[in-house]
């Protein structure tokens, strides 16, 4: 029996910077608000309001915006209906002339005051998306004491954008929740409205219980003793499927160096040499009564 260790999860980046502009460092500004690195923007929102990238105290040299379809031109032309304009100091803004479409959907990076090939330039990222997107998929409330079963934690999937969609969370082929025909206008699905800077920001949560052998959520369960990979899937009709994964890692083997250090009538102390960087921080140790057998 072994403990859990989270190895990958994605953080939410919805927050707005309280000080705008910041006193130093590269930043994004949209519709009067400063936005953090990795923020999400609907494609329609950059038609009505330009997305500005600024580096205070610097002078523009060869800075640039690069999107999923390549460099965004600042010469009056456009790339995937997105064009760039130069501001005062070290400042570049991008704005869509019309909806960017599939070629303009994805991650953009702004590099200031020099271009992105300069290793000393400053870089900040933004995601411009069509219809809907998964802003984050994270694990919350993972127990600090990893030696006690059952362990209970939560999966949080935050959806942003279009009001109509299907959303699900699963482990392997087992669906933990599956909500169809959701419409944020009438709140017919059990998400929580977060009222973020992006329209229709809704969080969906699933509570997971793991007893060392089985993952369960409500009446749904699946046997698993290895790594747990969960998936959140968001679908808008006739649009690309958005998918995020999060993995909770269980070490494949126990340490071969496990040794008994001390034993009393009520406690036993063991030690081991860590396998490598992927080894867990702790193990559940089971002692068989009436013997000296130690099992992990």
Compact summary:
The protein is mainly β and 296 residues long. Helices cover 1% and strands 46% of the residues.
Give a written overview of the molecule.
This protein has one helix spanning 45-48, and strands at residues 5-8, 27-30, 33-35, 39-42, 51-54, 64-67, 70-71, 82-86, 91-96, 106-112, 122-129, 132-140, 151-161, 164-171, 174-183, 192-193, 202-210, 214-217, 220-223, 228-235, 242-249, 259-263, 268-271, 286-287, 294-295. By secondary structure, the protein is mainly beta. The chain folds into 3 domains: 27-129, Sandwich (Immunoglobulin-like), CATH 2.60.40.10; 132-249, Immunoglobulins (Immunoglobulin-like, Sandwich); 259-295, no CATH class. Strands 12, 13, 16, 17, 18 and 19 form a 6-stranded antiparallel β-sheet that branches. It has a 5-stranded antiparallel β-sheet with strand order 1-21-20-14-15, with no helix packed on it. The model is unreliable at 1-18 (pLDDT under 50). It comes from Amphimedon queenslandica (Sponge). Keywords: Signal. Residues 1-18 form the signal peptide.
Please state the overall shape, judged from the principal axes of the Cα atoms. globular
| Helix percentage range | under 10%
Q: Roughly how many Å apart are the termini?
A: 5 Å
CATH topology grouping of the largest domain: Immunoglobulin-like
Q: Compute the gyration radius: what is it?
A: 24 Å
Q: Average the pLDDT over all residues and give the rounded result.
A: 83
